[in-house]
Amino acid sequence: MSGVIRIVIIDDNMSSLELLSTALEREGLSIHTANDPREGLELIRSLRPRMVITDLVMPGMTGLEVLRQVMHIDPTIDVLLMTAHYTTETAVEAIRNGAADYLQKPVKIADLRERVRRLLEAAEKRRIASSGSDESGDFHFEGLVAKSEAMWNLFAMVEKVAPHFRSLLIQGPTGSGKDLIARALHERSGLKGKFVVLNCSAVVETLFESELFGHVRGAFTGADRDKTGLFQLADGGTLFLDEIGDMPLNTQAKLLRAIQNQEVMPVGSLHAKRVNVRIVAATHRNLRQAVKEGRFREDFYYRLSMVELTLPPLAARKEDISLLSSFFLRRFAGDFGKKVEGISQRALRVLERYSWPGNVRELEHVVGRACMLTDNVTIDVKDLSENIVGASSEALAGAVDDPGASVLDSQERAVVERILRETNWNQSEAARKLGIGRDALRYKMKKYGLGSRPALSR
Predict the structure, then answer these.
(1) Measured distance CA(412)–CA(400) in Å, rounded
(2) Neighbours of 264 (CB within 10 A)
(3) Do domains 5-145 and 165-310 have the same CATH topology?
């Protein structure tokens, strides 16, 4: 982070102001304080700080009113609210209204410093992402890799809600990384319990109760011993319910009661067991539509979606493709014991033109396959699968192995025809020189009416 970072602290308690400002004093931070919220707002208007830390309950103006004013002045300012009257619901509501975080009083100094450090780092990465600059070189967040502004805004939201949520819904297309966001929420929550996963699409309907709540010996045929359910395994931690849209309606009702009451009844038992579990649910389905069609319980949906996070498809954040490709390549090169050091610019251009219906997971498989098959230190277009190259719009643009060749669309036909002539219309050789597969070459030949070798003139 470059330059001096300004932080404004607002609290009607002078002792608290002194404690907080002293705790945050360090090189690179400029701390400004106000014991009156209106005075604090004037400081904010004149200084335009990176962060505002404000008490929630103050005479004359509440912290929520300060938050609303700050969002009007500059919505990029991070606002951290403090209160002695903490509840999950008010914390989540404050975050929905734009708060960056929510701390309980009396504030623990170590916790305050860590929260401020994380918020400042995340703000800097969002600034870099929005400017397109690569100056930090650090685009990792709890196992996720991205430099797009959309993803760093999502990471910021994860940071905000992780300490507070009780139930949360992640929506996004298949292969976009919903499981990684769920794990990031758990890691950033501070919970000491386990991160437990259930894929709802992989469970037989009759076994859902046993999987979630457990059973006692003799509860049903084949129950020859007691089984601990996933709720109990996740006690003190997070239960991740992947593909929640595939859960049967009757199971949704029982799960809703378990989440509301924080207790489970093992199948065949007469005694409920108390649990303390946070729920993260994920789906690629449109649950609002499923509710309208009667395929998903409305009350269950609203319980899960107290907080909603949406993952964008890879096609909507193509600026991440280069970074993700390099990340996967390093991993696969290590796994395969190969000295593959990078991906050519023309191969990257082909990847960036592809529509990625399988999202990040598909990109991972494509890079893994190319790394496995290549004999060179750099992955090139010829190492990519033919369906990727063939389906990429304008896949030849920039892929021709001829620095003098134009890559304009209007000249693509001339480039293909020239390479075909140079290779005496040998399609395998022409495809190799063009850096594409034979299927992609045939597609271009058909597109431009280059179906056969021209007749020789007499």
Answers:
(1) 10
(2) 26
(3) yes
- The answer to whether 376 and 342 are in contact (CB under 8 A) is no
Residue 435: pLDDT band by 50, 70, 90 thresholds? low
Q: Strand, helix or coil at 136? A: coil
- Encode pLDDT of 139-190 as tens digits: 889 989 998 888 988 998 999 899 999 999 999 999 999 999 999 999 999 8
Q: For residue 119, what is the enclosing H or E element? A: helix 109-131
Query: What is the residue type of 208?
Result: F
- Write out the DSSP string of 270-321: SS-EE---EEEEEESS-HHHHHHTTSS-HHHHHHHTTSEEEPPPGGG-GGGH
Report which of residues 89 and 275 the model is more confident about: 275
Query: In sequence order, what are the residues at sequence separation of 6 or more whose Cβ sits closer than 8 angstroms to the Cβ of residue 166?
Result: 88, 259, 278, 279, 306
Cα 415 from chain centroid?
40
**Is the pLDDT assigned to residue 137 strictly greater than 60?**
no
Q: Which residues of 355-376 are buried (b: 16+ CB within 10 A; e: fewer)?
A: ebebbbebbbebbbebbeebee
Q: Average pLDDT for residues 288-313, to the nearest whole number? A: 94
The CATH class of 315-447 is mainly alpha
Q: CA–CA separation, 81 vs 86, rounded Å?
A: 10
pTM of the model: 0.70
- Under a CB-based contact definition with an 8 Å cutoff, are residues 286 and 244 in contact? no
Q: What pLDDT band is residue 398 in, cutting at 50, 70 and 90?
A: very low
Cα–Cα distance, 196 to 331 (Å, whole number):
25
CB 171 within 8 A of CB 310: yes
Pair type for strands 214-215 and 273-274 = unpaired
Residue ranges per structural domain of the chain: 5-145, 165-310, 315-447
* CA separation for the pair 92, 98 (Å, rounded): 10
Q: What is the end-to-end Cα distance of the chain in Å, rounded?
A: 73
CA-to-CA distance for 445 and 426, rounded, in angstroms? 12
φ/ψ of 29, rounded to 5, equals -110, 135
How far is it, in rounded angstroms, from Cα 238 to Cα 185? 9
pLDDT score, position 135: 43
- CATH number given to 5-145: 3.40.50.2300
Structure confidence at residue 416 (pLDDT): 80
> How do residues 34-92 score in pLDDT, each as one tens digit?
999 999 999 999 999 999 999 999 998 999 999 999 988 988 899 999 988 888 778 87
Superfamily for 165-310? Answer: P-loop containing nucleotide triphosphate hydrolases (3.40.50.300)
Q: Which residue has the higher pLDDT, 223 or 378?
A: 378
